[in-house]
C-alpha cells in the first residue's frame, strides 16, 4: 500500500473507513482498520471484491476472515502505519492548535502595547518630529492588526480541521463501543468478556488487596427454551430485555455485566465480603423472579421468569478459564438443584 499520501487524503480515507466498520459491527482493531482503509482507498480491487463477498454473505466480517484478507493482500508494514496514523493526526493537530493560540495571544498583546504607545505619543506635545513618529507607530499598528486578522483566520481554518479530527476520534470510540456491546441488552458482549476476563484475573492477582474479593457471577434464565417454544422468539427477546433492565438497576461502577451467550450473563466485580456478594446476587435473583409475562390475547398464559446463579470467588494467580469453569459448574449445580437459586463454587 502506498503510505506516501497526504495527511488530507489519509483523513478522507479514515473518514470513510470508520462508518464502514460501524455499519458492519466490526471492532476497531488495527487489522480491520487496515482492510477498510485500503477498501475505501480502492488501491487493491481484489481486496475490495473479497470483502464485498464476505459482507454480502454474512453482513459482517469475522476477526478470522479479516485476518485472512489482511494476510492475503496487505503486510505488517501496513499495520504499523495504521496503528500510528490516528494518533499522529490527533497529536499534530493538537500541537498546531496550541501554537497558533500562543501566536494569537502574542500578536494581541503586541497590538495592545502599540496602541498604548500611540496614545502616549499623542499626548506628548513637545516631541521632535512628532508627526513622523506618530505615523510610523500608526503603520505598525495597522500591520499588527492585519497580522492578528490573519492569525485569527488561520485559527478558524485550523479549528475546522481540528474538529474533523476530533469527530474522527469520536467516531472511532463509538465504533469501538458498538463493537463491544450486545444490541439487545445493551450489556458488553461475549467478545468483550473474552478480552476482559484475563485482565480481570491478572489485575486482581497483581494488586490483590486484603479484604477485597473479586467475583465472577454467571446466571442463566431458567427454561428459556420452553419459554421460546411456548411464547415465540420475539417474546423471548422481550424477556431478555426485561431481565437486562432489572440487572442494570443493580449495577454500580465497580461491576461489569456481559451477555455471555443466548440467555446466559456474567457479572465481574469487587466486593468486601461473601455476604455482600450473596446479598447482591440474591437481589438480582429476586428482581428477575418478580417478572412475569403473558400472551397478549390470553389472560391465563401468565408465566413467571427466574434465573439460576453460579458464583466463583477469584483466587489470585488463577487463569480466566479456570474461574469461568468454576462459576459454570456452580451454575450447573444451581440448575440441577431446582433452579431460581444461587450456588457458590467450592474454594478448592
Ligand atoms: N428469544 C431468544 N432466544 C434465545 C436467544 N439466544 C438464545 N436463545 C434460546 O435460549 C434457549 C436456551 O435453551 P437451553 O440452553 O436449552 O436452556 P434452557 O431452556 O434455558 O434450560 P435451563 O438453562 O436448563 O433452565 C434456546 O432455545 C435458544 O434458542 C435470543 O437472543 N433470543
Automatic annotation (TrEMBL):
Key words, A-Z: Coiled coil
E.C. number(s) listed in UniProt: 2.7.7.65
Residue ranges of every copy of the GGDEF domain listed in the record: 212-347
UniProt GO molecular function: diguanylate cyclase activity
GO biological process: cell adhesion involved in single-species biofilm formation; negative regulation of bacterial-type flagellum-dependent cell motility
Domain of life: Bacteria
GO cellular component: plasma membrane
Originating organism: Pseudoalteromonas espejiana
Coiled-coil parts of chain: 151-178
The protein, known as: diguanylate cyclase
Cofactor names: Mg(2+)
InterPro entries: Diguanylate_Cyclase, GGDEF_dom, Nucleotide_cyclase, Rev_trsase/Diguanyl_cyclase
Catalytic activity, reaction form: 2 GTP = 3',3'-c-di-GMP + 2 diphosphate
Gene3D superfamilies: 3.30.70.270
Amino acid at each position: 500500500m502506498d503510505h506516501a499520501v497526504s495527511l488530507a487524503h489519509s483523513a478522507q480515507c479514515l473518514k470513510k473507513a470508520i462508518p464502514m466498520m460501524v455499519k458492519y459491527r466490526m471492532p476497531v482493531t488495527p487489522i480491520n482498520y487496515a482492510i477498510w482503509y485500503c477498501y475505501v482507498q480502492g488501491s487493491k480491487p481484489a481486496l475490495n471484491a473479497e470483502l464485498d463477498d464476505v459482507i454480502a454473505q454474512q453482513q459482517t466480517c469475522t476477526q478470522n476472515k479479516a485476518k485472512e484478507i489482511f494476510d492475503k493482500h496487505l503486510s505488517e508494514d501496513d499495520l504499523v502505519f495504521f496503528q500510528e496514523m490516528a494518533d499522529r493526526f490527533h497529536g499534530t493537530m493538537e500541537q498546531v492548535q496550541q501554537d497558533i493560540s500562543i501566536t494569537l495571544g502574542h500578536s494581541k498583546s503586541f497590538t495592545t502595547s502599540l496602541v498604548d504607545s500611540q496614545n502616549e505619543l499623542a499626548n506628548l506635545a513637545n516631541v521632535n518630529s512628532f508627526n513622523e513618529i506618530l505615523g510610523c507607530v500608526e503603520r505598525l499598528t495597522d500591520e499588527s492588526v492585519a497580522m492578528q486578522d490573519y492569525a485569527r483566520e488561520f485559527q478558524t481554518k485550523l479549528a475546522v480541521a481540528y474538529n474533523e479530527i476530533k469527530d474522527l476520534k469520536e467516531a472511532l470510540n463509538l465504533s469501538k463501543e458498538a463493537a463491544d456491546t450486545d444490541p439487545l441488552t445493551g450489556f458488553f458482549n461475549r467478545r468483550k468478556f473474552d478480552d476482559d476476563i484475563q485482565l480481570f484475573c491478572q489485575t486482581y492477582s497483581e494488586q490483590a488487596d486484603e479484604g477485597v474479593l473479586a467475583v465472577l457471577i454467571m446466571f442463566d434464565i431458567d427454561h428459556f427454551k420452553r419459554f421460546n417454544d411456548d411464547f415465540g422468539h420475539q417474546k423471548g427477546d422481550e424477556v431478555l430485555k426485561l431481565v437486562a433492565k432489572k440487572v442494570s438497576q443493580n449495577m454500580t461502577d465497580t461491576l461489569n455485566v456481559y451477555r455471555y451467550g443466548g440467555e446466559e450473563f456474567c457479572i465481574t466485580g469487587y466486593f468486601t465480603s461473601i455476604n455482600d456478594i450473596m446479598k447482591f446476587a440474591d437481589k438480582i435473583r429476586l428482581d428477575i423472579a418478580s417478572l412475569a409475562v403473558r400472551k397478549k390475547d390470553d389472560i391465563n398464559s401468565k408465566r413467571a421468569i427466574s434465573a439460576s446463579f453460579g458464583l466463583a470467588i477469584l483466587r489470585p494467580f488463577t487463569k480466566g478459564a479456570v474461574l469461568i469453569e468454576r462459576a459454570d459448574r456452580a451454575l450447573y449445580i444451581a440448575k440441577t438443584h431446582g433452579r431460581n437459586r444461587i450456588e457458590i463454587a467450592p474454594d478448592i
